[in-house]
Amino acid sequence: MDIKEKEFEIFCGCGRGLCKDAVGRQDRQHNTYDWLADVPGNTDDTDLVEVQFKHTRKGYYHNVNHLELKKGDIVAVEANPGHDIGVVTLTGRLVKLQLKKANLRSADDIKRIYRLARPVDMDKYREAKSREHETMIESRQIAKNLGLKMKIGDVEYQGDCNKAIFYYIADERVDFRQLIKVLAETFHVRIEMKQIGARQEAGRIGGTGPCGRELCCATWMKNFVSVNTNSARFQDISLNPQKLAGMCAKLKCCLNYEVDNYVEAGRRLPSKEVVLQTQDGDYYLFKSDILAGMVTYSTDKNVAANLEVISAERAKAVIEMNRRGEKPLSLQEDGRQKENNRTVDLLANESISRFDKAKKKKKAGRRQPRQEGIDEPRRQRKQAADKANAAEASAENVQKPQQGRGARRQGNRPPRNNQHRDAKEQNEKE
Predict the structure, then answer these.
(1) Which of 91, 154, 296, 418 lies 20 to 30 Å from 407 when distance is taken between CA atoms?
(2) What burial letters (b/e) apply to 4-31, b meaning 16+ CB within 10 Å?
(3) Of 109, 124, 135, 194, which is closest to residue 159 (Cα–Cα)?
(4) Does the N-terminal peptide bond of residue 414 adopt cis geometry, omega within 30 degrees of 0?
(5) What is the DSSP letter of 102?
(6) Cα–Cα distance between 46 and 148 in angstroms, integer?
(7) What ranges make up the beta strands (E) of 268-349?
(8) Distance between CA atoms of 154 and 136, rounded to whole angstroms?
(9) Is residue 141's pLDDT more than 90?
(10) Tell me, what's the pLDDT at 335?
(11) CA neighbor of 85 nearest in space, from 48, 43, 57
(12) Cα angle vertex 356, ends 355, 357, to 5°?
């Protein structure tokens, strides 16, 4: 590992491995792909350069010194006060397009690049980054002691340790003038408080979404577009708050990704209020498959009954026929009747009473095999003799006392001493 790679490894403060520089390391924050990088004269059209700092914060600067900068270079840029350290993420003509998305108030907000980062600058930068976590924990305790209803989510030190940005979340307006005084006396730096929303906090902290991938706001999203429930309605998504909310407890940003396609495809479908009239009866729209262009109609307005699945073109053709006062034979193509799929009767060749056979009662004794060739009187005499033998055996078992552990349970216990009970009864009588 050379010096430049080692410096870049230290620069990455995301805590999830190395960022992605020109040699292709893994990056937590995906940047804009410069598809004009190999075009001759790309960097000659403008001197604007995009520089990325911690997490999603980016800035745009003028390369007034005409340095030969490329993606992945670590540079020292102008700050207020002092300087800051960042990584070049984009150069050339595409920076102008990215600058429009940033919505800068004036051209004065665009500062300049001083130089490529020196070893002294990197040593100062390492010192600044090592103080961020402890500063965040201590500042949270200070805000709690002052009774402020706010949450400090992240702290970012400037590259020269002269300034610190405190990112916080608050539902209400917070008067943090006293907090700034205490923080300045504690950390001896210039304090800047910056309020962020729940989506920005999720982008700085990171996490894994329900799709199994890392959050979009932590990987590639820079600008957050408002999301409302209409995006879910256009896509026929159930309005379940638990499923529509993301890690930030707000509506998922991915609801806006495909809504344009659904809106365009929904224009090809018939209206939900239109009732299709056929000779079989009236049909009401039950559900729609927007992307496939298929609609399902039911003969009942509230429940699913006699469902018919047809294409949107066929539905519009039936609507046009109804306008002319015509009623097709059915909703199927060319007016043919719907094929009734007969169900298979599994008991067609079986007897319904096959399970109604009488159960045979089990005898107490051992079942004797039946001897063929013996007449009925002889069989009766034999059964009577067997019953007599069984009765004699049972009588002998009753007269003979049992031995062992079961003797007490069979009534062979020794007589109890009832003198105490008799004396107690005699006292009660007296």
Answers:
(1) 418
(2) beebbeebbbeeeebbbbeeeeebbbeb
(3) 124
(4) no
(5) H
(6) 46
(7) 276-277, 282-289, 294-298, 308-311
(8) 6
(9) yes
(10) 55
(11) 57
(12) 100
Residue 156: count other Cβ atoms within 10 Å of its Cβ: 23
Q: What is the pLDDT of residues 73-124, one digit of tens each?
A: 999 999 888 899 999 988 988 888 888 877 776 667 789 999 999 999 999 9
What is the C-alpha separation between 16 and 232, in angstroms, rounded?
33
| Spatial strand order in the sheet of 163-169 | 151-157, 163-169, 190-195
Phi, psi of 200 (to 5 degrees): -65, -35
> In the structure encoding, which two tokens stand for residue 328, read together?
């097709």
As a whole number, the mean pLDDT across the chain is: 79
Q: Percentages helix, strand, coil for the chain, rounded to the nearest 5?
A: 35, 15, 50
pLDDT tens readout for residues 363-418: 555 555 555 555 566 777 778 888 887 877 776 665 555 554 544 444 445 555 55
β-partners of residue 285 are 297
CA-to-CA distance for 156 and 164, rounded, in angstroms?
6
H helical segments located in 151-191:
177-187
Q: Report yes or no: 155 and 164 within 8 Å, Cβ to Cβ.
A: yes
Judged against a pLDDT cut of 50, whether residue 251 lies above it is answered with yes
- Residue 354 dihedral angles phi and psi, to the nearest 5°: -75, -15
* Inter-helix orientation angle 132-145/119-130, to 10°: 40
Nearest Cα residue to 46 out of 92, 14, 8: 92
At 50, which amino acid appears? Answer: E
Residue 262: the pLDDT is 92
Task: Give whole-number Cα distances, 395 to 45, 382, 399, in Å.
Answer: 120, 20, 6
What per-residue confidence (pLDDT) applies to 423? 60
How confident is the model at residue 123, as a pLDDT?
92
Helices 119-130 and 3-11 cross at an angle (nearest 10°) of: 30
CA 68, 73, 75 angle in degrees (round to 5)? 90
What's the CA gap between 64 and 220, in Å, rounded? 29
Residue whose entry in the numeric block shows the structure tokens 């003979």: 400
- Residue 385 structure tokens: 């003799």
